[in-house]
Amino acid sequence: MRLATSASVAFAFILASCDAVPADNPxxxxxxxxxxxxxxxxxxxxxxxxxxxxxxxxxxxDAGRYRDTGRVVQLRAEAARAxxxxxxxARESGVELVPISGYxxxxxxxxxxxxxxxxxxxxxxxARWVAPPGYSEHHSGLAIDIGALESPExxxxxxxxxxxxxxxxxxxxxxxxxxxxxxxxxxxxxxxEPWHWRYTGLPDDx
Length: 206
Prior knowledge:
By secondary structure, the protein is an alpha+beta fold. Helix content is 25%, strand content 18%. The protein has helices spanning 7-14, 77-92, 106-120, 123-126, 164-172; strands at residues 46-47, 50-51, 60-65, 72-76, 97-101, 143-148, 178-182, 193-199. The strands form 3 sheets. Strands 5-6-8-7 form a 4-stranded antiparallel β-sheet. A two-stranded antiparallel ribbon has the order 1-2.
């Protein structure tokens, strides 16, 4: 299979899914109805099934580049180190994991959500695919969208589950402290996202 060789081709695949568009965070003012973290009005614990998250204030680390775009995907430092270790081990098994999207600001998430509302017609419908600002795991710096190097067409698509990369992740991600956030029929009611994983830290027992 011929690999994507330009940023424009890679982005064309990603634009099919609003929630994981891996562009640099735009400067977007977050509307008052979505603002979180203010002392006067804290966000609800959940919104349309998504849990509330604040933007992390922990140091961020480099989890790698998204394909040939040159854009750096960032995670909290410990999560970035764990992803890179996982990526190296996968490569030794012949599997190339690609970081697609990591830490996101509230403003960037608002841009994604606004686009999703326009696409799906309502906030509730959009939230099945895109977390509202203030309710995305990506704010925590511990969530990462992962792709398969040889299959750019599966980036942020359910077809990712058919790649060797996903098969490897199912068998090995837990060793590095990662778990899938939204499996099929998850209790939050969020659509299945085989590409979206979160760092929970290494288990206490080896």
